[in-house]
Amino acid sequence: MNESSEFAGELFEALARRRGITAGCVSKDELREFWEQISDISFDARLQTFFDMVDKDADGRITEEEVKEIISLSACANRLSQIQERVEEYAALIMEELDPDNVGYIELYSLEMLLLQDPTQSTNLVTDSGIQSQLLSQKLVPTKEHNPIRRWYRRLAYFMEDNWKRIWVISLWILICLGLFTWKFIQYKHRAVFDVMGYCVSIAKGGAETLKFNMALILLPVCRNTITWLRSKTKLGVIVPFDDNINFHKVIAFGIIVGVGLHAGSHLTCDFPRLLHSTDDEYNPMKPFFGNKRPDDYWWFVKGTEGWTGVVMVALMLVAYTLAQPWFRRNRLNLPKTLKRLTGFNAFWYSHHLFVIVYILFIIHGYFLYLSKNWDKKTTWMYLAVPILLYACERLIRAFRSGYKTVRILKVAVYPGNVLALHMSTPQGFKYTSGQYIYVNCSAISPFQW
């Protein structure tokens, strides 16, 4: 009843209604009776209190409207906004279950039967919680389907029902990547460089286009405030699995690896060697891009801005990706002490923040291109502008919040099961809402980690 005077009022009215009390106050003896009923944790007492709260006219029957009211009230008291939005649906389900004959109301024994009946729908009531738990577990065991086709279809149906949001988002992402790759592949197939470098250059440029898209996209799943706002303030949460943001972040990271492999692999193993071994006649159309003198060896490509930025980026990405793997991040490998210090969560955390250098190099790499000289053809910054700006705003908001209101640690306790409990003061004006979370910083360990 904390911070919910409305719920407390409804409870008072229910207790008073049962005893025929019409006044807005109670005597000392009546207060004792109220307290005895509220503090009685037995199943029957709690069920009766709940029933009395729903049964507003005290006729021993609950209508669908009364069910709606109590669900809404309970959801409001516990700040469960999702339940409040589906009150009618839940009330209809309850009435369907407890009023199979459609008489328009349910009685106390119906609630009791629903909660206490055994898996065979027997009328023998089982009150022992251990036995009841076992019976409910047995009731949840699915019946085995002997037909393999039906069994496979049912599993597929369950999978689709549970994962349809993930499936369509991943499918859309894959289609966009394929579309960008194909568009760039065909574009370079009709350019002069194709005559010398062949399909190698088309693959390299197709991979680069998906890389630009994924480098922009990978920032969005880690914009926590934006994700929270989209989930709670828009209807997109109905079709987009925002709670899977970190998993999607990992999927995009894999897409970046594929893009780097296609881009760098094709350049280093295919089109650069073809350029180095081209004849003078074949090289003539390449002079506007690579200079009047044909490059002599690989070093020419590496020492250029395009080359060294690419090499450094790939090296930093490999470090960050490797240390992010569970066996390194959670120190699962039996490594020598010297190497073990280079792994663990701290290594993962700080190596991941190398992305600042990576993005700077990525923009430089995307500007100094061999085969594109016009600024409007250098699209890397166009992909990255909005996501980087959004992420920068996110970090500014976090920094502002971290110093806006301070709290005092009132108590620290370690409970069985390796549970650490922190009791802290509540900032003035703060009201808890269901689903909220906090980030805790221990500056003695790290001033940057939350």
Ranges where pLDDT stays below 50 over 5 or more residues in a row are 118-127
Structural class, by secondary structure, is mainly alpha
What does the largest sheet look like?
2 strands, antiparallel
* Rg from alpha-carbon coordinates: 32 Å
Distance between the termini: 32 Å
What's the total number of strands? 2
Strand order of the largest sheet: 1-2
- Averaging pLDDT over every residue, what do you get? 83
Please work out how many helical segments DSSP would assign. Answer: 22
Helix content: 55-70%
Shape: elongated
Order of helices and strands: HHHHHHHHHHHHHHHHHHHHHHEE
Question: Approximately how much beta-strand content do the residues carry?
Answer: under 5%
Notes on the protein architecture:
Helices cover 63% and strands 3% of the residues. The chain is elongated, with a radius of gyration of 32 Å. The model is unreliable at 118-127 (pLDDT under 50). The chain is built from 22 helices and two strands. Helix 1 packs across helix 3 (43-54). A two-stranded antiparallel sheet has the order 1-2. The chain has 450 residues and is mainly α. Among the domains are: 5-117, Recoverin, domain 1, CATH 1.10.238; 164-303 and 372-402, no CATH class. It is a multi-pass membrane protein. This is Respiratory burst oxidase homolog protein B-like. It holds the Pfam family FAD_binding_8. It is found in: Membrane. Residues 42-77 form the EF-hand domain.
Describe the protein's topology.
Layout: H1 5-18, H2 28-39, H3 43-54, H4 64-77, H5 81-84, H6 87-98, H7 108-116, H8 129-139, H9 148-189, H10 194-197, H11 199-217, H12 224-233, H13 245-276, H14 280-283, H15 287-290, H16 298-303, H17 305-323, H18 326-329, H19 337-340, H20 345-352, H21 355-367, H22 380-404, E1 409-415, E2 419-424
Antiparallel strand pairs: 1-2
Helix pairs in contact: 1-3, 4-6, 9-11, 11-13, 11-22, 17-20, 17-21
Pfam families: FAD_binding_8, Ferric_reduct, NADPH_Ox
InterPro entries: EF-hand-dom_pair, EF_Hand_1_Ca_BS, EF_hand_dom, FAD-bd_8, Fe3_Rdtase_TM_dom, NADPH_Ox, RBOH/FRE
Transmembrane segments: 167-186, 307-328, 348-368, 380-397
